[in-house]
Amino acid sequence: MSTAFKTAPPFSHRTVAASAADAIRRKIFDGELKDGEPLRQDLLAAEFGISRTPIREALVQLEAEGLIRIEPHKGAVVREASVADIEEIFELRHLLEPVLLERSAPSLAAADFDHIEAILDEYSAELRNHNVKRWGELNTLFHTALYAKAERPQIRAIVDKLLTASDRYTRLQLLHTDGLKRAEKEHAEIVTLCRKRKFAAAADVLRSHILVVKASLLDFVARRG
Q1: What is the pLDDT, as a whole number, of residue 210?
Q2: β-pair type (68-71, 38-39)
Q3: What is the mean pLDDT of the chain?
Q4: pLDDT at 65 over 80
Q5: Into how many domains does the chain fold?
Q6: Residue finishing a domain among 78, 108, 126
């Protein structure tokens, strides 16, 4: 197993378990930990220089996110990308995110839209630089910034979890399909429509965007399998 954890930032500002979960999650998203790869607690603890207790807590958190599975008498392994996971994650996003957008967008100020467009500018730059590690992060930042003023904390919590779970799939879709230009265009269109206060139209574009990503991913997984 890679020892890349040794170069990760020190676990000083968050709990050790949460920081360990973040580092393992990044390795899964970046493809350093492959589908089906075992996650041995003793090796992870040694790489982090921490005890096995927070590693166990981190793995439980990652299992709840759907990134790994913990098998009795075998331990934890990276969960394979599956058709069922993609369908469920993106079906829920398709239902919930337009609700948040239509509630949040009317309250977004000019400064909020400037911030969102700055995220899109960086997103476009990283796409052109093929900086895969930033694609999913910036995609998540874009969506969460759009929904920031929805005042629906429970739906936001669910969507935040869905965005985290879909990060690995977003990277797959952008890296291995022709979704790059379409993602840029649709993101920009959503912001433009919101600025023009055409909120229902923006929500329609968002729905279509999520469904297109879902279809592209399902096609990719089918061809890969």
Answers
A1: 94
A2: unpaired
A3: 86
A4: no
A5: 2
A6: 78
Closest CA to 112 of 144, 89, 156: 144
My answer on whether 65 and 89 are in the same domain is no
One domain, residues 113 and 147: yes
**Whole-number pLDDT of residue 162:** 92
Q: State the SS3 of the chain.
A: CCCHHHHCCCCCCCCHHHHHHHHHHHHHHCCCCCCCCEECHHHHHHHHCCCHHHHHHHHHHHHHCCCEEEECCCEEEECCCCHHHHHHHHHHHHHHHHHHHHHHHHHCCHHHHHHHHHHHHHHHHHHHCCCHHHHHHHHHHHHHHHCCCCCCHHHHHHHHHHHHHHHHHHHHHHHHCCHHHHHHHHHHHHHHHHHCCCHHHHHHHHHHHHHHHHHHHHHHHHHHC
Q: Say whether pLDDT at 9 is over 60.
A: no
Q: Is the pTM of this model over 0.85?
A: no
Euclidean distance between CA atoms 161 and 168, whole angstroms:
13
Of residues 168, 161, 169, 125, the one with CA closest to residue 143:
161
Report whether 203 contacts 102 (CB < 8 A). yes
| Of the residues 78, 109, 131, the one at which a domain ends | 78
